[in-house]
Design goal:
The chain is α/β, with parallel strands linked by helices and 353 residues long. The chain folds into 2 domains: 189 residues, Quinone Oxidoreductase, Chain A, domain 1; 131 residues, NAD(P)-binding Rossmann-like Domain (Rossmann fold). Strands 3, 4, 5, 8, 9, 16 and 17 form a 7-stranded mixed β-sheet that branches. The radius of gyration is 20 Å and the shape is globular.
């Protein structure tokens, strides 16, 4: 850790200048510290499928430059005059948002992700100063104190980084729907989100089943805590498991026949979508009505719940499976994510930026 305040607010980063452009070396500016700001030297930044959707222009116009990354782990290097929760040298993280209004009913409940005025995303947003937000594919970031979380000593920084999105994205719905001992849970997809979901649901005491397109990752799924593993390309899977699950977590960021998966829910079961495909899903209401089933969505978690998730993972020894890469390999990593050729999350070593 270098430590200390860097004089220039210009920092090194990797960004793109248009949809599907290659990543290049860029320089971005970080604001001077406000009184409640924390400056962080980023050590590791995870690659999320949301980064790819955004960089490829699938969720709107790409800013120039766009620096993605909302799975950030590093050290505090300076603090504003009124910061009380952190000190220089602390191990910290930043997730998918860096601010919110702080006053609406959602924010008052600690659910800043659902801020009624719209939370400020870590990248591809606009902060309270009117400046574009830039993410973690960079060497430093400045974030208001209330949107920084503490990374427990038990979690290595490189493996903690993906928990700031993949971890909280899966923990939050499992926590909200009270998954625990006796719950029969299915996780759809065994990728960056899914493998973490399996570990968390198992640690919560659920009986976990993985529903993946093929059986290629079955050995891993069982090792991570699943009791059962089925291939969804086999139509008999949907016949055999009809009405089996109390809760299904769909982590897939591609269009699925959601009605087939709803048919796997038991009476009063719920299917929650956390994967975010670019195209709409087709839903038939009679997939819900006969068994009083529910179809819901979930968006990350609030700051308080994110800290709870990190502490839970530290307590239960839950770490994402990662491949650490150089910043020179981001484009290749994106291609490999789209080809499902990663086990299971890429993490950028920001020393290579």
């Amino acid at each position: 850790m270098d430590g200390g305040f860097f004089v220039s607010q210009t920092v090194k980063a990797r960004g793109v200048r248009g949809a599907k452009e290659s990543f290049e070396k860029v320089e971005i500016t970080r604001r001077d510290l406000d009184e409640y700001d924390v400056q962080i030297e980023i050590k590791y930044a995870g690659i999320c499928h949301s980064d790819i959707h955004t960089a490829h222009g699938e969720w709107g116009e790409v800013t120039d430059p766009l620096v993605p990354g909302h799975e950030i782990a590093g050290y505090v290097t300076d603090i504003g005059s009124k910061v009380s929760a952190y000190k220089v040298g602390d191990r910290v993280g930043v997730g998918c948002m860096v601010d919110s209004c702080g006053k609406c009913s959602s924010c008052e409940k600690g659910e800043e992700q659902y801020c009624l005025e719209g939370n400020v995303p870590t990248y591809a947003g606009v902060d309270k100063y009117g400046e574009p937000t830039q993410g973690g594919y960079s060497t430093h970031i400045v974030v208001t104190e209330g949107f920084v979380v503490r990374i427990p000593d038990e979690l290595p920084l490189d493996k903690a980084a993906p928990l700031l999105c993949a971890g909280i994205t899966t923990f939050s719905p499992l926590n909200h729907w009270d998954i625990g001992k006796g719950s029969k849970v299915a996780v759809v997809g065994m990728g960056g989100l899914g493998h973490v979901a399996v570990k968390i649901a198992n640690a919560m005491g659920a009986e976990v089943t993985v529903l993946s397109r093929t059986l290629a990752k079955e050995e891993d799924g069982l090792k991570f805590g699943a009791k059962h593993y089925y291939a969804t390309e086999d139509e008999e899977t949907f016949e055999k498991l009809a009405g089996s699950f109390d809760f299904i977590l769909n982590t897939v960021s591609a269009k699925l026949d959601i009605n087939k998966f709803l048919g796997l829910l038991a009476l009063d079961g719920t299917l929650v979508n956390v994967g975010a495909p670019a195209e709409p899903l087709d839903l038939h209401v009679f997939s819900l009505i006969p068994q009083r089933r529910s179809f819901a969505g979930s968006l990350i978690g609030g700051i308080r719940e994110t800290q709870e998730m990190l502490d839970f993972c530290a307590k239960h020894g839950i770490e994402p499976e990662i491949e650490v890469i150089s910043a020179d390999d981001i484009d290749e990593a994106y291609d490999r994510v789209l080809d499902s050729d990663v086990k299971y999350r890429f993490v950028i070593d920001t020393a290579t930026i």
